[in-house]
Amino acid sequence: MKPPKLLPLALSLFTFLLGSLHAQQSPDQSDDDIVRLSPFAIQESADMGRYQAIESTSGSRVRMDLMDSTQSISVLTNEFLSDIGTAQLLDAVKYVAGIGNASSTDTMDIMNIRGFLNWEMVTVDGFGQTSYINLDPIIIERIEIVKGPNAIIAPQGLPGGLVNNVTKRPLFKNSGSVSYQVGRYDSNRAEIDANYVVKDDKLALRVVGAFTDADKYLKEKYSQNLTVMPMLTYRISPTTELTAQVIVYNGTATLTNIPLSIYAVGRRNVHILEGLPRDFALSNRDDNRHESGQRAQFLLTSQITDKLSMRLAGKWAQQSSRASEIHPSSPRDVNGDLLDPQPVQVNPITGAWEWDGIIRSDEVRFTLAGVKDMTDLDHANLQSDFVFEHLGQGWKSQTVAGFAINYRSTGGGYKIAFATPVNGSNLFDLTDSSYTPVSFIVEPDWAFHSSLRNRSNQVYLYQVFNLFDDRLVLSGSLSQNRYFSGGTDNLSGTSTDDRAEATLPSGGFVYKLTPEVSLYYGYSKQEILGIAHPKDLIPTHTSPSRQHEGGLRLRLFDGRLYTTFAYFDIQQDGLWEGSLANWIDPTAPKEPAITSNRTSKGFEFEFAWSPTKNFSLIGSFTDFKSRDQGNRRYSHIAERMAGIWGSYSFSETGSLRGLSFGLGANYVGDRPSDTLGQYTTPPQGFQPARYQPLFWIPSYIEVEATATYRFNKHWKAQLVIKNLLDKDYIKVATNRTIYPSTPFNPKLTLRYDF
User: Fold this and answer.
1) Are 211 and 180 in contact (CB under 8 A)?
2) In the beta sheet, which residues pair with residue 240?
3) Upstream peptide bond of 341 is cis (omega within 30 degrees of 0)
4) N or C end of the chain: smaller count of CB under 10 Å?
5) Which of 40, 153, 190, 715 is nearest to 477 (CA)?
6) Beta pairing class for 161-167 and 122-124
């Protein structure tokens, strides 16, 4: 059943009202009353503190006071990103409530947001993109995190929310800096940021860039990245501005995972394979993920009248990715046969993995194999927004209407790869002292190769009213979306064609007990286009998600303290899977697939506080449950997290002027690892059981610190120390391997400002 065509009618009504309201200004409105600040630009106060933000544009594509939002929005300022020595997005967002790491820390900026993984999805300036490598922070000015479904900025995004990286823009002042970093690991990095005003208040140019050639803690592991972003801003008129940016990058990174103990089960023996050093490398430098790409984007904003503004933004990008990933097999004996019995076995009745503590093997061998993935990607986006603002006596309104067009074309696939045999054998004793990181051979034929095309169109209407002298804020939106996905298996010639429509509402209110204390509630929806799988009788479908969220916000002490207490309840429906009956008797006619849902609900607390001009704090705490329909936890999701960071700068007139310190700690609770398989094959008379996680990743606390000293207006040095207490812990895990922590890791950066 198609959704009602409400939005075209609403837009027609909006166009009529726009003309009539502009034709006759309200009698209680004067030129002095009209606020002419662009609704697309952030206006921050420099006196509130280094980590304080009062506005965001990521919730509805226009500027919004954080106190007026009906869903949680967190902002990480440029000062915070600089103070902690941000080397990748996870360095910063781990201090935000509801965000944690996931199945890898080396590539793709994979993280979980309120329990949902942002697999292959990074958002830059409101545009989603996929990437095989981490985004270089040199291009980022600030990070804005929108929690929960949001049908305006990301109708097909993550149900848990999105992390929107706002890029740097040209400034109308001459300034710049160059820096170089050295250190023990993950360093050897140069940066440049140069801004030049060609014509006062008319044209400004800026270029930022970074080159990294860093060794990892593990042998043979490294990362290299060259990112350059030139840009310009041209003020066509006092009310119209155009910004254009080009991003060119070329990066390579290796995974730092190590084989897991073959006796790991539940919470027992969760550590590196016995006999391996902590810096063990399974494969050599050729086993890596490489990506090169170009991205061009523009932003045009204009104040058409005192009440009407517009924004037009577009992006085009091209990427070429090459990735390999080698993993160890299940343990084998010296003849290459699987150990019989395996030390760790699944209980076919419960699905839980077990080890009796007796079955052992002193001579374990592994085969090493994986895939070589080769993908080329083109994507383009176009967005436009019109904002009509009206100011009345004791009230004001803002009406936003816009559209978005998105296109993506992907071509590629993968080939099977396996380790190069040594002395004619493809069996490896990883604990042998003579073992060296292996190279690998790629099969000539494709194991899978496909072409995929995705298109989506969006039209939306957003309305907000500030009533009773800003005491009550009411807001709501309607987003109408059309999705298309067409794919072709280039090996078999089979094709799929999936289409869907969705009309997504949202709404809520904010009630301000005082100007500094507010209560809020919000309801939002989102809908993701799913892919049909005829073999499993899964039809074309969408997976809708909705969120209820409510909470309390405080902005006290002239804005120096901002804090949020939030409760959220997310449910995602339309998750299809094959029927259990098909698993019981694979020879019987297939039963139709069934749907299930997942939920994520819990509490968040976060704050940013600057009790004095010299002292700044930011912190968060999260306690929630992310579960499937059977109340089972999801892999790689920690349901309890916390973080706190503080910095202190000495007085500018004292003997320690120019010196500042920072100290932070991050807690991550235990998490289930991968679930290997779907259902067990139980003895006769028992139903198949879902496989449980193979093991649990232990909780950990990581402490980091910085010290910064400014010698004069030109020279500054910063010392960043990761893992200050030199703790040995597991960051994440995947496919029977774990990612160990990097030991005590100091990095020194020398910077020259001009």
Assistant:
1) no
2) 237, 302
3) yes
4) N
5) 153
6) parallel
- pTM listed for this prediction: 0.90
Cβ atoms of 7 and 478 within 8 Å: the answer is yes
Question: For residue 678, how many C-alpha atoms fall within 13 Å in the half-sphere facing its CB?
Answer: 8
Judge contact between 523 and 548, C-beta under 8 A.
yes
Q: Give the C-alpha separation, 541 to 203, whole Å.
A: 49
User: Cα separation of 737 and 572, whole Å?
Assistant: 30
Cβ-Cβ contacts under 8 Å for 19 (sequence gap 6 or more)? none
Q: Is 163 helix (H, G, I), strand (E, B) or coil?
A: strand
Q: What is the per-residue DSSP string for 187-246?
A: --EEEEEEEEEEETTTEEEEEEEEEEEEE-SSTT-EEEEEEEEEEEEEEEETTEEEEEEE
Residue bearing tokens 């019987």: 588
Per-residue pLDDT tens for 589-617? Answer: 888 888 889 999 999 999 999 999 999 99
What are the extents of the domains in the chain?
54-753
What percentage of residues in the chain have a pLDDT greater than 90? 74
∠ Cα 144 209 51 (to 5°): 30
Where would I find the H helices in 511-657?
580-584
C-alpha distances out from residue 212 to 228, 249, 473, 672, Å: 12, 11, 47, 33
Tokens at 641, concatenated: 């997290």
Model pLDDT, residue 45: 61
Contact 167, 154 (CB under 8 A): no
Tokens standing for residue 444 = 């000539």
pLDDT at 736: 87
Which pair of tokens denotes residue 572? Answer: 């995602």
